[in-house]
Every structure is written in C-alpha cells, then in structure tokens.
Amino acid sequence: MDSLEFNKIAGAVLGTALLVFGLNELSKIIYHAPKPEKQGFAIEVAETTETGNDAAADTAAAEPAESLGKMLASADATKGQAVFKACQACHDGSKGGPNKVGPNLWGVVGRMHGSHEGFAYSDAMAALKDKPWDYEALNTFITSPKTAIPGTKMGYGGLKKDADRANLLAYLQTLSDSPVPFPAP
Ligand code: HEC
Is the CB of 87 within 6 Å of ligand 1? Predict the structure, then answer.
C-alpha cells in the first residue's frame, strides 16, 4: 500500500467517524429536548382526583368544631396562668392592680367591653360598651383581636391554639371574687 492510498483510506475512516459522531451528537440534541410539562392524558386524571379531594375537604370543614363549653370543661387554669405570661407584658391581672399598656383584667369575665376605669380605650372598643365579655366573646377576641374587633389598639397577634385559649380562659375565670361559670358543654 503506498502512502497516498493509505492517506485516502485513513481520511475516509476519519471522515466517517466524524460523521457518525456528529450524527450521534445531533440526535442527542434532538431527542433530549425537554419533555412537555404536562401531558394531556395525565391532566385529566389529576383533575378527577383533585375534585375528589376538594369534596373531602369540604366535608371536613363542615364538621362542627368542639364546643367552647366542652373545651372549657377540660381546661387547666394552672396551664392558663403560664399562657397569661404573654398577656402580662401589657396587662395586670391582680385585684385593684394598675392599667398598663392594656387595661387591668381582674374580673374581666362578665364586665362590659371597654369599661375599666381610667383606661383610654380605642373608639372601636368603647363602641361595644353595652356588650359583656362572656367566654365566647373573649375566645373570639383572643383568637385574633384585630379580626374580632377591627380598630382595636390591642397590639397582639392572637392565640391560635384551641387548648391554650381554653386554659387561658380558665385562668381568667379565677381573676374574680365571684367567678362566672363556664357555658354548658
Ligand atoms: C402589646 C400589648 C398587649 C398584649 C400583649 C395583650 N393585650 Fe389585651 N389589650 C391591650 C390594649 C392596648 C387593649 C385595649 C384595646 C382597645 O382599647 O381597643 C387591650 C384590651 C384587652 C381586653 C379588653 C378589656 C376591656 O376592658 O374591655 C381583653 C379581654 C384583653 N386585652 C385580653 C388580653 C389577653 C388575654 C392577652 C394575652 C393573650 C392580651 N390581652 C395581650 C394590649 C395588649
């Protein structure tokens, strides 16, 4: 084999190799294109499932929450005293104690909204002066003060855990010479 012929063959082999390699790379680019995010068939299945889930969630939401009376029946005032620490930044709970950032809370259960002597209430709170603080009203207010009484100046986000609120209400009950009985379970 003379060197010219060798060069021709080598050139052909190299050319073929390059072509094969090139095609291979090209096919990778073509066939590895990103898959479409959703496939029509899968979407239909997912929608059916979602509707099912929604129906289940609706049913759960429609079930009545445990009544406040029932929650209070098993509440623990001692645990509530610990919860009350978060309120003491602004409230004094002792008999004849001072108003702080918020009004004194001795005897708050059963007393009228916005009625503690010497405290400058917000207009929103003062407007409710004919309404007594029963356990329901306290529960709603403490869950989310600004939702319950828009315009209140009580700068507290709210106590979301049912058990904490029940224990706290049981403690507020003790801040009185004649504690107000809990509502029936
Ligand atoms: C950052 C201070 C702050 C914290 C913390 C706070 N309060 Fe208050 N609270 C206030 C202020 C201020 C008012 C007066 C609201 C108004 O006039 O709108 C108030 C009003 C109240 C009232 C109405 C009293 C009345 O005489 O009508 C109750 C009940 C009450 N707070 C309970 C609580 C409880 C229970 C907690 C703890 C879970 C708590 N607060 C935490 C500042 C606070």
Answer: yes
